[in-house]
Amino acid sequence: MTTDQPDHQRQAHFDAKIEADITIEAKDWMPDAYRQNLIRQIGQHAHSEVVGMLPEANWITRAPTLRRKAVLLAKVQDEAGHGLYLYSAAETLGCTRQDIYQKLLDGTMKYSSIFNYPTLSWADIGVIGWLVDGAAIVNQVALCRASYGPYARAMVKICKEESFHQRQGYEAVTVLAKGSETQRAMLQDAINRFWWPTLMMFGPNDSDSPNSAQSMAWKIKRFSNDELRQKFIDNTVPQLEALGMTAPDPELAWDETTGHYRIGDINWDEFNQVIKGYGICNHERLEAKRRAWENGSWVREAASSHARKMAAKKQAA
Ligand code: BYC
What we know:
single chain, binds benzoyl coenzyme A, Ferritin-like, Phenylacetate-CoA oxygenase subunit PaaA, phenylacetyl-CoA 1,2-epoxidase activity
């Protein structure tokens, strides 16, 4: 492929690579819409990781044992690392980290709806690990085969860590499920509050998902939102039953004919309100991130001044 080829030839070459499952790399030609769609999705994904640190960090000082505290600290730190891999992957597409981060802060880029719900009890932390990380894995395992190489490779490492996160969450909820009546009630309450928002993480129903068809044709998404949601439900209901807990859905039932669990209606009005910025914690989450950005300005200034000094020293030598 030479750079002086006309666009229709480059497009044909790109299409052939997608068709043959050959990853697209940062320096390869790609249609601008593919690039912009990836910046949107990877940027949103990166923002989700770093905003997702907040609800869990809320419990670090109140973890019930030293072991739980150490695990939670490590998990929250992992999420920061995931954000960094993803911001780096987004940068390979030509955007700057500062630009997309600014768009998070001014509310013009999204982050996952799930992090706009509060963490009211210790059980919420177990449930986030079990359900939220569990949902994230189902979505992210599929993204390990995304057509854009830097995104797919970031996902492989992230999935390994998410799998540990999910297991520690399930272990934590298992302890509560075997505990006192108060602990079981606390767990059930956490499940009741997080069940539906977790199902919403997969995005709108396929018929209302404007980006899916093109993203699937480009093999960024390998499965539709509804397919992944169903996979998560089928994986999770047996775990819920093993815990002796219930979902807040009277219509949840095994369907012999389809071989899948059936669920009741998702409240899409709630989802739409949350992604428009009107969820319970949207304001609080963005305020926390804006404050951190402002409080960290001296670190950025010191780092860039040091970099300038080093560059000047190198030039003078
Ligand atoms: N929340 O056409 P659609 C984690 C938006 S963090 C907010 O189906 P797409 C963790 C969507 O962006 C990992 N917005 O979109 C961290 C679009 O709006 P725009 C979180 C959502 O992109 C810390 C519009 O709705 N995982 O695990 O084809 C602690 C229409 O949707 C949501 C990811 O970020 C939502 N839930 O498919 C613990 C996964 N759903 O952008 C855990 C990466 C949809 O056109 N992202 N929207 O304005 C994806 O896989 C895809 O972007 C989605 C949506 C499946 C989420």
